[in-house]
Design brief:
The protein is α+β, with helices and mostly antiparallel strands. It is built from six helices and 35 strands.
Length: about 450
């Protein structure tokens, strides 16, 4: 059966739900019932639309995964609802969830008080006052924060009064939260979360587009964990609907020509060619969480060897303290130098978490990457190719990265064959080398047209 095409007519927003597992799950189920989520069964994402926006909720029922992904930015949140029982006293977990929302960078939140069908109005009123006090403590505008009172159990039982409150909740989100800033104009980047093989079609990698736009027929690079490789995008899907392009915030599957499942692993990224590189060495600034924030109770010292969580993967690394520090105590910041055991796609400004035994103990941001580790090797997407009898194949395109010289050896994506460049032309003239941005023709000795077809990627064989 032909797949439905996704129509992008409304702005997209990633909605986070904060609260204990019971009330988060109930609220997500209530929203899905009222707004008719079109997401597949057992999906980790809930998709629905209001009058003004298209929303996605990523389901995180495990508190450790929730903290890991939200605090580090592994899952982006544009807006958030804090859901809590209106009939129980304030708890330390309520405070922790508001702190968690604040740590993700949000400055606005909507509160949904559940179970108010049970007539304990004094407790509900007192708890609302307590929540406003905590919101003020963590920098939220408590006086302007909307509070919606409802009953998810009533929604699931079809009670119209409580269904109307869910509609009111989402209308409040539409009106209270500003539209998220667009990252469309930045180079494409998507962390890989999972890999599937579709019989008869090829390999699909899934993830949430972090920035930029990717189109069908674009060339993308696989970056991280192994040597960088290039692939051609032949299909894009979101919620089992076809797209011509994917934008920031979209949770998509990307079909890649010539790819095998073994070519990919969680922790890699798909990216625009030459836009990001994999590194093992970097400098960073970190904040070590206090014990009250779920962090360590003891300082860290030189040689500290924790797990560094980048986007979708934990990688072990060794820490060296900078600025003459011998220890870093919980609740303080520090500059560090790190060496990872595996190369990870990163750039200045990339955020990460430091973890011990599945627990987040620090957050950080990359501040410096040694220039000697940056990959500047040749890369070019082939736009056209033709055969010169007795000499080889000419591949034409624009150099996307690095420099290429006469007699350099290059290879093509998806192939182990290596070819020698015997002629380079730029603007109809023979030259000894071509640089990034040049529109070139490369004569490849020993290649056939099948080896170098339009859409394939040439890169250095070094």
């Amino acid at each position: 059966m032909a797949k439905e095409r996704f129509n992008r007519t409304k702005p997209h927003c990633n909605l986070g739900i904060f609260g204990d597992t019971k009330h988060k799950t109930a609220l997500i189920a209530a929203i899905s019932k009222v707004f008719g989520s079109s997401s597949p069964a057992n999906s980790s994402n809930i998709e629905f639309e209001t009058e003004k926006r298209h929303y996605t909720i990523t389901i995180q029922t495990n508190i450790n995964d929730f903290i890991k992904n939200y605090v580090t930015g592994g899952i982006k949140i544009d807006a958030a609802i804090f859901t809590v029982s209106g009939t129980n006293a304030l708890s330390s977990q309520d405070r922790e969830n508001i702190l968690l929302a604040q740590q993700t960078g949000l400055n606005k939140i909507v509160v949904f008080m559940d179970d108010v069908d049970i007539p304990i109005y004094d407790i509900t009123t007192i708890k609302a006052i307590g929540i406003r006090n905590i919101l003020s403590e963590f920098g939220f505008d408590a006086n302007k924060t909307p509070f919606i009172y409802g009953d998810t159990n009533g929604v699931l039982n079809g009670v119209k009064r409580w269904e109307d409150e869910i509609v009111k909740l989402m209308k409040t989100c539409d009106d209270y939260f500003p539209l998220p800033e667009s990252d469309k104009n930045k180079p494409f980047l998507m962390p890989i979360e999972d890999i599937f093989v579709i019989t008869g079609r090829g390999t699909v990698v899934t993830g949430r587009v972090e920035r930029g736009i990717v189109h069908i027929a674009d060339t993308v690079e696989r970056v991280g964990l192994r040597e960088t490789a290039s692939f051609l995008v032949t299909g894009i899907e979101m919620f089992r609907k076809l797209l011509d392009e994917a934008q920031p915030g979209d949770n998509v599957g990307v079909l890649l020509r010539g790819a095998q499942k073994t070519d990919f692993a969680r922790g890699m990224v798909l990216a625009a060619p030459g836009s990001i590189f994999a590194h093992t060495d970097f400098e960073a600034e970190i904040y070590l969480l206090k014990k009250e924030e779920g962090g360590r109770s003891t300082p860290i010292i030189k040689g500290y060897r924790p797990q560094f969580f980048f986007r979708t993967i934990d990688v072990t690394g060794t820490v060296q303290l900078l600025d003459g520090l011998s220890t870093v105590t919980p609740g303080s910041t520090a500059k560090i130098k790190v060496k990872l055991i595996l190369p990870i796609a990163m750039e200045v400004g990339t955020r990460f978490a430091i973890r011990e035994g599945g627990r987040t103990v620090a957050c950080g941001v990359v501040t410096k990457i040694p220039s000697t580790t940056i990959n500047s090797s040749f890369l070019m997407t082939v736009k056209d190719s033709f055969v010169i009898t007795g000499r080889g194949v000419v591949a034409s395109g624009i150099v996307e990265r690095g420099t290429v010289h006469m007699n350099d050896r290059v290879k093509c994506s998806g192939s182990t064959n290596v070819f020698t460049i015997t002629s380079i032309t730029v603007g109809g003239k023979n030259v000894e080398e071509a640089n990034k941005g040049d529109n070139v023709g490369l004569l490849l000795r020993g290649a056939s047209k099948e080896d170098v077809s339009p859409g394939s990627v040439l890169c250095s064989a070094k």
